[in-house]
Amino acid sequence: MVSVPSDQRQAAALAPESVKILVAGGFGVGKTTMVASVSEIPPLSTEELLTEASDGIDDLAGIEGKTTTTVALDFGRITISPKLVMYLFGTPGQDRFWFMWDELARGAIGAIVLIDTRRLDASFAAIDFFERREIPFVVGINHFDGAEHRYEPEEIRTALAISPGIPIVPCDARKRDASKLILIRLIEHAMSRLPAQASA
Amino acid sequence: MTGDETQWFDEAAGPLVRPYAMTGGRTRPGAAWLDVATQVVTVPSASERLGLGPEHQAILDLCHRALSVAELASYVNVPLVVIKVLISDLMDRGDVVVRPPAQALQAPGRDLLQAVLDGVRAL
């Protein structure tokens, strides 16, 4: 027990770097499906206790408040190397849990906003959230079997007033390769938005 | 003001009681900055477990390999706000060490993004 500091160093050396990517969009657009398609583990679920009264302003210290509700958070994991692990968080679908999104979004690489062309409005709030905070995001058009018409990305861009620089990628959230591709597009997009490297 | 203000055991009390019991009534973690992706690792010498609850012990058992705050909340089956308090208890005791996400407050830099990109392409 005398060598605690070295033990702590030894333990700290085992901790990888971690990065986050968010998967957002309205309720039922396929967020957890997408997380599941690329995660190395079946998606895990955890929950947060929130006060109804906090209404997006209070932080979580407010759980002593009189009315409590529970928000489920689904997430997956991709171990990139022993030194680097990535988490994919499916954001809670309801608009009133903005403040939880803020914590999730802090330090994140960016977000994939999934949309269902049958219910475009369900994902508008998510687009607005990331745009206002200048968090890099890409839009994934999740093609559902029931959708009558396949919209072109530019039709979607116009309908949702998505800025010209934001990639819009048709995808099938059930397919690993499609989900992988949209992750790649997001990371590339995030890199393109970094300040140019200082030249010598 | 209605009578609800003072009525503790309303229908919402159920899910509140157990988390409070586990955290000794504390709601604000000693380490409020613990992120969902913060990595937690058990310190090898953390063997003296007197005074630790079963949830604390579960964390120590799980973290022989690094796990995130979110994973721990899921595996120990408690809300995030509770797992953060439990982890901060263990930090205070020197039983675990934590590593926050690469860039806790701002977006990751170019080198890290490149490493992630290479990793995802290789999946």
UniProtKB/TrEMBL annotation, chain A:
Domain of life, source organism: Bacteria
Single GO molecular function: hydrolase activity
The keyword Secreted is assigned to this record: no
Pfam families hit by this protein: ATP_bind_1
The entry's keywords: GTP-binding, Hydrolase, Nucleotide-binding, Receptor
InterPro entries: Gliding_Motility_GTPase, Gpn, P-loop_NTPase
UniProt KW Hydrolase keyword: yes
Family the UniProt entry places it in: Belongs to the GPN-loop GTPase family.
Protein name (record): Signal recognition particle receptor subunit beta
Automatic annotation (TrEMBL), chain B:
Superkingdom of the organism of origin: Bacteria
PANTHER family for this protein: DUF742 DOMAIN-CONTAINING PROTEIN (PTHR36221:SF1)
Protein name as it appears in the record: Uncharacterized protein DUF742
UniProt source species: Kutzneria buriramensis
